[in-house]
Structures are given as C-alpha cells and as structure tokens.
C-alpha cells in the first residue's frame, strides 16, 4: 500500500479549511559565501511571525539531488508521487487554458524565441514578449497545415503558446527542442518509441512552416517546443483526500495541473492581490485552497537576486489577508528552488512552514533556509506534505487497531 492509498482509507470529512500558499521557486542560495538567500534577505515580518507559531522543515520535491520541473514539483506538493504519475508540461499548459485534450492528442508547450541569421538562439523567451503581441503570432501559426493531422495552436501568456497534434497512433515520448540556454541551435525532436517517431516528424514539419511564417518578426522569429505529452489518468482530490479543492492561479499551466487532480479553478485573477480577493470570495465553498504565486520563480530564472527578494516581500505582504480568514491549517512553501545564483530550477530542498492549532511548534523564529534546517518537520519528501496538512486539520483517522 502506498501513502496515497493509505490516506484514501483514512481520510475523514469535517469543516476545517486548509490553505496552501505556494511561492513558485521559493528556495534560493546565497550569492556570496556566508550571505543570505533571497528568502533570508527579504523583509518578511508576517512569515517570520508565522514561523514562531508553527513548524518548519526542508522539503525535497522528488528525491535528493533531483531537479524538478514545475509539473513534478506541484504533483509532489499535492501528494502524488511524481515518479509514478508523470505528466508532461504540454498537457498542463493546454488544460490550463481550457483546451480539452483528447485521447489521440499530443500537447506541446512552446516558447516564441529570437534566432539570429544562422538559426542560433539569442533569447529563449523572445524578450518575454507581452501577450498582446504574442497572441496574434500564435493565431498566425494556425496556417500550418500537415496532411492527415489536426493541428491546434493556442496562445497562453507572454512568450508561451500551445500546439496540439491530433491523429491516431501518436506518442508523447519526444525530447524537447529547447536546449535550455542561449547560443545554441534548437534541438532535433528525438523520439524514443515508434508512435513518438510519428510525432517527431510532425514537429519537424510544423517548425519548418512556422519558422517561415515568423521570419519577418523582430523578436519572435522562432519557436522552441517542450513537454510533449498525452493525457494521463490521475485520481482526484475528492477521491483521495475527501476534499472539495479550489485552485487560484494567474498562469494557465498551474490551473491545468490543478484541474488534472480534480481541483476547481476559481476566479480569473491577474495579480496576487486579486488572487486573495478570489480566496476570500470562495472561502465558504471549499475545504482546500491552492494559491499560486509565479514571480518568485521568474525572477530567479532571470538571475536577478534583488528582484526575487522584492517578489518575496510582495508575497509576505498578503499573508495577513490570508490569516484573517482563519484557516485551520496554513502551509507556505514552493514547488522547487530557483536560486538567482543559478538562474534555473535546482535540486535544493524548499523551506516549508506549517501552522495549525495542533502543530508542535519548534524553536524557529524566522522563515528561511537556515532556520528550516533546524525545524521540527526535518527533511521530508513533498508527497508527505498533504498527509501532514490533513492530520493537522483533523482529517485523518487512526491506522490499525
């Protein structure tokens, strides 16, 4: 019996409320020896106050040393083993914008990018081109035509868009064309099984046509394709935890992941403040709330330590509005670490805070990586976070006689 099956057999329904505040890419590193991380450098009086009331720990998103993508990172937070439930980013992105991914579909998450005259990548995100500029370009790519295949192209946000191929016999086991750094050519879509070889050939045809359509664009004159995937089957939050769960997010991918585990996406917020407005408005209708903040991750990926500090301080500022609602359990964490020093996701554990009436407070006085190392939760895998939240909410019964 795995942890999720055990929890399914023990969950209890009651009227408690659980809030999971996720600052994407929260964990960081010092930029100089002995210095603070981004979280430790930020002024976070509200999170520090919660640290004195609650219990801290260092959360391992997947396994020690393994760097997670956003999809596996969030799956772990939600209590689903990322290794047993692989979900490609393409499906997450497509689902997040409301696209109904079917059984014959392969969904792909794409970036507009900037290429030089030789096809070398100058900017993987085309200068983070704004949505009002990128959406018409995504629509332009609907002119791509491949015999025997339905091709869907949908705008997402900023430099991101989704491509979906629909045909019998397609596979999603294709490597990304994004080399994850500038100064290189886009990669060939390498397939790892026979159905995926068909998909890879479709990718080559799509890219060839799309590149011609984008040739005259000053910034978004190319594209990179990531997260090739087909729709998985995953048990829902209601089935596993007995929870009516709500997801509140700005970015489509996180809405998509939440929907795949049976959460109801509520509201259409555009800012963190609006997300908390939605939380307050939906308070009476749900038991569990996942609230996602993206920009801690974005600034870390940009390699901008000071900007990530400011985003953490912005995140801290909304905490009193959340605690004023009176959650029975409040969890504050991230899906992974994105240190500005690396400019990318990393394998480092994520500082995590849990506050409830029944938690056993530790001696931590601040919320940060160093404090979390000494916290009462210790080092733990992300898949154990939901059982801890349920137990603190009085929603888990006893195992055995």
Summarize the structure.
The chain is of the alpha/beta class and 401 residues long. It has helices at 3-10, 38-41, 45-53, 70-77, 89-96, 131-140, 194-213, 237-241, 252-260, 272-282, 295-301, 305-317, 319-323, 369-373, 385-392; strands at 18-23, 55-60, 105-115, 121-123, 150-157, 160-166, 222-229, 245-248, 264-265, 288-293, 329-333, 350-356, 378-381. It is globular, with a radius of gyration of 21 Å.
Mean pLDDT: 95
In sequence order, what are the helices and strands, one letter per element? HEHHEHHEEHEEHEHEHEHEHHHEEHEH
Biggest sheet, strands in spatial order? Answer: 9-8-10-1-11-12-2-13
Query: Low-confidence stretches at least 5 residues in length (pLDDT < 50)?
Result: none
Percentage of helical residues?
25-40%
How large a portion of the residues is in β-strands, by DSSP E? 15-25%
Distance between the termini: 17 Å
Evaluate the radius of gyration. 21 Å
Helix-strand category: alpha/beta
CATH superfamily of the largest domain: Alkaline Phosphatase, subunit A
Q: How many distinct beta strands?
A: 13
What's the total helix number? 15
Per CATH, the class of the largest domain reads: Alpha Beta
**CATH topology term of the largest domain:** Alkaline Phosphatase, subunit A
* Tertiary shape: globular
The total number of structural domains is 2
